[in-house]
Task: structure prediction
Amino acid sequence: MSIAFLGLAAGSIIYVITELLAVARRGGMKVLTTWMILLGLLLGFATDAVVTAAGV
Result:
C-alpha cells in the first residue's frame, strides 16, 4: 500500500515539474525555473537528512 502512495506522490511531482517547465518555456524564464526546481529538490533532501538525523 505504501508503494502505491509513493508512486502517486512521485507522479504528482513529475506532473508539477513538467507544467512548471512548460510555463517557463512560454515566459522565457527556463533557466531560472530550472534552478529553482533544483533548489527545491536540494532543500527537500536537506530537510529529510535533518529529520533522519534527529531520529523522528
About this structure: Helices lie at 2-27, 30-54.
